[in-house]
Specification:
By secondary structure, this protein is mostly helical. It is 51% helix and 11% strand. Helix 4 crosses helix 5. The model has no long low-confidence stretch (mean pLDDT 92).
Length: 112
């Protein structure tokens, strides 16, 4: 419960690349209204309409230090706008049923 609370109160959730191609962290962040910060070349992997500066922060390959400086300069009004955009997109793009149906369609599997 503490993790979920911290995620909900966080403006940003860092989602650096790991050992696998994708991670659940950007989706967790979106569901809690936090702005995911992830590699620019991974935005389309999640198929939820991630757009740099709108509902996420895209980090160019290997430029995580520059991305942290960018986060520190984002005005409060832009943070609020991005978090509003996330809240608006969740029901149509990230909700569990919607997201799982989209994943099934991409895999050619019939959702039950």
């Amino acid at each position: 419960a503490e993790f979920v609370d911290v995620l909900t109160r966080s403006d940003f959730t860092l989602c650096p690349p790991g050992y696998s191609l994708i991670t659940h962290r950007p989706i967790e962040a979106l569901l809690r209204g936090s702005i995911p910060v992830l590699n620019a070349n991974e935005l389309d992997l999640y198929a939820v309409g991630l757009q740099d500066g709108t509902n996420c922060i895209a980090v160019e390959d290997g430029r995580w230090g520059a991305a942290m400086a960018r986060l520190a300069r984002i005005p409060e009004a832009d943070l609020a706008r991005m978090r509003r955009a996330i809240r608006q997109m969740v029901p149509a793009r990230v909700d569990y049923r919607v997201l799982s149906a989209r994943m099934c369609a991409r895999l050619g599997v019939t959702a039950s």
